[in-house]
Every structure is written in C-alpha cells, then in structure tokens.
Amino acid sequence: MGTTTPPRTLAEALRARGDESLAGLLRARPDLLNPVPNDITQLATRAGTRASVVRALEHLDRFALQTAEALAVAPDPAPYGILLSLLTGDGLDDGEQRDDVGAAVTAALPGALATLREQALVWGEDERLRLVRTARELLAPSPQHPSPTGLGPTVAEATAGMSPGRLQEILTTAGLHATHDPVSAVAALSALFTDRTRMAELLDTAPVEALSVLDRLVWGPPYGEVTPNPTPPVKWLRDRGLLLPVSTRTVVLPREAALHLRAGRAHRVPEPAPPVVTAAAERDPQAVDRAAAGQAFTALSTVEELLKLWNGGGPAILRAGGLSVRELKRTATALDVTESIAAFWVELAYAAGLLATDGESDERYAPTPASDEWLDLSAQHRWTHLATAWLPATRVPGLVGGQDAKGRALSALGPELDRSAAPDVRRRVLALFAELPPGTAPDPETLLRRLRWERPLRGSSPSGEGTDLRSRLALWTLNEAELLGITGRGALASQSRALLDEGENAAAARLAPLLPEPLDHVLLQADLTAVAPGPLERPLAETLSVLADVESKGGATVYRFTPGSVRRALDAGQAAADLHAFLAAHSRTPVPQPLSYLIDDVARRHGHLRIGAASAYVRCDDEAVLNEILADRRSTGLRLRRLAPTVLASQADPGSLLEALREMGYAPAAESAEGDVLITRAGARRTPPRTPPTPVPEGPPVPDDTLLGAAVRAIRAGDTAATVIRKDPAEGGPSSTTSSGSLPRTTSAETLATVQAAAMTGTAVWIGYVNAEGAASQRVIAPVRVEGGFVTAYDHTADEVRTFALHRITGVAELAEDGKG
Predict the structure, then answer these.
(1) Mean pLDDT for the chain overall
(2) pTM value surpassing 0.90
(3) How far apart are CA 416 and CA 438, in angstroms?
(4) Which of 461, 548, 682, 750 would staple 469 via disulfide (CB 3.0–4.6 Å)?
C-alpha cells in the first residue's frame, strides 16, 4: 500500500502505524493483549468488539467523548470541518455561542481526535474521519437508547417505511415540489431543514405554541407522545415534517431540524478544557504537616487498640461472611468512634494484613502474626505500612450499612465490598491535591467536577449503586485521607507528597520529626489514677494496660487502678512485689499509699480460693469462707455441694464458676490438675500466617515496555505471515495467503526438500504447523538446521529461534521475491 493511499479499513489504518503508535494503542487498551493478537487483522477485529469499545469509551475524558458523540451523528465518513462545526456551531446563533468557547474547541479538537485515533476508535484521514462501527452503534440515537447528544434520527431514517403519499403531503404542506420518488422526497425535505434561510422562513409562519413544542424537544430527548387527535400546534409540526411519526403514539424531531434550532451544535455546552480545581482555603504548610502527623499518630493508636481489643480472639464471622451489626457497634463503642469510622479502621487493618480469620471451626477474626511484626516497627514505618495498604485497596468501607443489587445488607469485612475503581479514584484525588500549592485545601465541589470531566462514563457500578459511584468514592477518599493523616486540615501533607513521589522511606523520614517521642514514665495520683502525658513506650503501655483500665484519652491518657485491674495483672503471673517495683520504676511521682494498699489487699486475697475441674470445684483451706459461699443466695445457680471440709463441687464449668465468684466479691484463682495456679496471659491468640487480601483488578494490568515491545514484534511478525506473498507449490506462481487463508499442503518429501534448500540458501519459507495441542497456525520461518526429524529455524512470527517437528508441518511454500508484497 502506498504511503498516500488512504486506508480502506481499520486494519489497514493500524498496519500503517509505526511500532510506537501500536504500543501506545496496546498501552491505552490493555484488554487487546489478552491473548496477544496473531496479526493486525485480528487486532483490528478485537478492537471493534463491543466489550472492548465500551471499556475504551469509559476511559475517555469529557471532550474526547463529546467528539466521539459528534462523529456518531455526523455523516460517515465525516470531513474535519463538519466535525468542528458540530462542536462549535455554525456561527448564526445570535451570539449564544461565545467566541472564546469556539476558540477553545478549535484548539482542543486536534488533541481529542488524536486520542480517539490512538485508541483506534477513529480512523481515516481528516477529510474522511470514521468512527468505528461499534462505537457509532453505542452512541447513535435510537428510541431505546437516545443519543447522548439528545439528537434523533435523520429524516431518511425517520421516514423509512413511510408511504410515498404521506411524503408528498408533507412536501406540499411545507411548500416544496411534490415528487413520487421517495428518495427525491426525502432529499428535498432534508435540504429544506439544512437550509438556514428557507428553514427560518418556515418557522416564521409557525404558531407560538408549536415553537414551544420544539423548544422542549430540541435538546433532547427528541421523542414525544401524541394523542390520536393531536393539538393544532403538534398537527402543524407533523404536517410539515418537523415531527415525524415513529409509532401510532410517538413522534420524533428529525436530526436536521434539531441542528437548525441548535445553530448546528451537537452539544448544548462543549467542554474542551477540564474544570479548574479551586482552593477552598490557604493554610500554613507546616501547620498542615503537624495536623496530619497528629492524625497519623491517632490512626496508629486506634489500630493498635483494635488489635488489642481482638487480641484473645475477636468477633465471630457471619455465615455469609463479615461482621454482624452488633459486633461492629460493639467495636465502635470500644474505640469511641462512630460505626462508619469503626468500619474504616477494621477494613484498613484487614487490608494491611494485620487482621484475618483464624480458620477454626468456630471461626473468628484475630490478629495475624504480621501484626506483631508491625507493632515492632517505628511509628513512622507503621504509618507508611497503613498508607501503602490503603492506596491500592479495592475494598470500600463507605459501602458498609448499604445494600447490594439484591437488597442484602453490606457488612464490614463482608465479601461484597470490593470496587475495582477505588484505587484509581484515590490516586487521582491525591494527584489533584498534589497539583495545588503546599498548604492549599481544594474545594470538594470543583474537585468532583474535575473527576466527572475526566471520566464521565465511569460512574456506573454492576452492583446497582447508581451512576455516580466515582463521586462517592472521591468523597470517601477525602474523609479517609483525613482520618489516616494523608491530609491535614483539608490539604495534602508534605510526608504524603513524599509517599506518592519518592516512596515509603522518604515519607517516613519526613514524618519522624513530627511524631511525639514515646515516654518511659507516668504520673501516679492519689485518686488511684495514672496520667500518661504522651505516648508510652510499648512495654510500658502493654503492662500498664493490664494493670489499669483506660479512663480517658486525648493529649494525655488517664488510667484507673481498680481491684479488677489489679487482679487481672496477678492472673497474668505478676506478684505484688513485681507490681510495686514496676510502679516505682516508671512513676515520676511517689507511689500513693492508697494504690499500694489496693495492690496488697487484692494480692492477699488472690488465689485464696482455687477453681478446678470436677465438672468444677472450689478449694480453700479456710472452711469459714466456704461456709460463707454456701450461705450466699447468689451461689444458688452454681449448684454447689461440699465434698470435704475444704472442697466444694459445682455443676458449672470452671470458667463460669470463676466469673461468678468474682462477681460475688471473691478473688479466686484457677488451678491446674496438679494444683498449680494457672496464669492467664492476654493476647495469646493469633491466626495462622495470612497474606493481605488481593485487590480486585479493574481490568487487565497496563503492560510494561518490555511486554509491549514483544507484543508489537509478535503482531508484526504474525501480520507478515498472514499477508506474505508466497509461491504456489503446485504451479510455481505467486499466491497470497490472504486470498485462501488455508494451510499449505505438500508431501513429506517435498517438505523436507524445501526446508533443506532454504537452510542452505538462508531464505525464508512459509509453512503450516500443527502443535502438540492440535492448534494450527501459519508461520514464516528461516531454517538454520535440518536434522533428526526437526527443523531449527528463526520464527518471524514469534521473533525467536524455535525447533519444529517435521511431521507436524502440513506443507511448505517458498516466498515470492518481493517478500511482503
């Protein structure tokens, strides 16, 4: 094909592209690579399939989509000038179309057209632009699927099947010369509607009410319902062809008439430029960084508290998967947050691989072994771990509490929370943040408008959540970024910019100076409380959380010592002397006497009663204590009886008996079968090693340059094999594989002789080959060696050296001297 010959098909247009252009197509539409097309023709066919075209349209920005929509209602093929006029108008609309908008459209149209060409949605030269057939079918108007432009069918399409007599009546009423030829009649009516002067004269005679009807239809939808006896204005329009019948009760405004009323514009408002994201507030960048760092520290504390809350085994899993509403509410209460925020923290810990299911018969959620490794990291690296788990996660906590397409409730950690568009939205929102000057908080409404312009068709969801899922994901991203400390006071923090641009280590280095240093001391007070004036070192915090209960949080954490908390520490194996030494070592104030008395008093009574398995028993050396228990009415439900002066037996299990006696005010201790006190240590339950949940991909991954280069070479080689000119072995003349498409057929002796000759002369031959799986293919090979029943050759189709079994070659043919033809 000569360089000046315009392409006749999409395949020819793709074949004329350079390798870089083909790689750009495969990068923009990676679904075309699965699997790699055999040749250019197969690539063009796949690029025109409905699923692939829909996916490509969904990735267009607003103006590129408007350009494709204009081509869908333009003549096929359409000159560049016609396309431009559909987007700018004909300039005769009394100034409604501002000159600056027209200039912006004129400047932006070449770029939009280049995008459509790159993605193989449009092909052909500027004077013969063609929208691929599938895209035209998707964007063209029909009664079932109105055009996005709001335009109806052409006069020719709307009058198809109309009787010649009815056409003559319309022409006569419209003041046109009547003709018995339907084609001429349709052409005459179309010419009237596209003639600005004659059309204006016709509308000048229209009743005011008729013009009002046109005003309601002109920008779409162009269809309207009529009664068997239409009103005079509708009848006036129908008699002159300005409304054409679609059915007995439906009429349509033909495209040519609508374009006249629109002054030639396909869209009411062309949007050639993306909306500008404006600033809602300008803040001090350092204040933003400090606020984000403070929230990052709160995020770490919340996740640590969640892990501690589920340390000994978390809530049970619903049969359908996920957390029950009651368990989520209980978790929210424990974390002192709302249920929606609790769902975010639970999902974040799950996405980061810190929480998972334990896989037991009574399956529950619990921390993973990776959570212990995470807790050992520095605070800044713990934060980067959470942030990098959040960015690519496809699970959307904002959906919790809603319903799926079947009306079923969506639960936290449930199976229906994945939305493949979430990572793309998150990264795009943060990228728009990063484009603003440091310390600038964007206006959310302008940010949403920008996202809608960039992906106008990407809002729908297969779960039936409406047509604006992308905007909802963006709003959730704003809230989650603030909770996680990605942003501070509505602006992107510098450590987050470093995370996006430079990686985790750079972000951790920026964040470290902003986080408070952990403390190794508390302040004990006489009212049995301890005040931690800042974050505590991990060993101190873990021990203190067992010895005391958290009473309040904030800039300082207040712990309260109670008999129950002290008993919990004794149950964990601590002795009274250990507790006294611990408090003395870590308090900047003297240990209050009431606290020392509390520890000694609880320790003196701790373990005085012993609980074991009988079903359960109570053992005590003091008979009076056992008499007191038997006399207490609260022990009736335990069904106690005396086995010996110092032993009581119960039909309750040891755990229930232990809790019941503690509620009665005693301090019993559990003992083993050997009579030793059992030490209960918190946080012993862990899941088996688990990997974090894998994000659900939105589509095929974008291939890297290496894969793209190999794919382009394979397609080129396959195209060479498919279009090469070969010699017919029977007649010795040239023959194109594209004419027959069948595999060459030669005898074994002819095959062997031909490939041996090709190996000696270093020429390429065309073969048919059937592999071990029975798949047949055509290949162009350059034989190097023929021995042992195998041919070693350079395979132009695969761009590599391969070995072929001679008995699997169906036939061979020499190539014509002009090679590719």
Answers:
(1) 86
(2) no
(3) 37
(4) 461
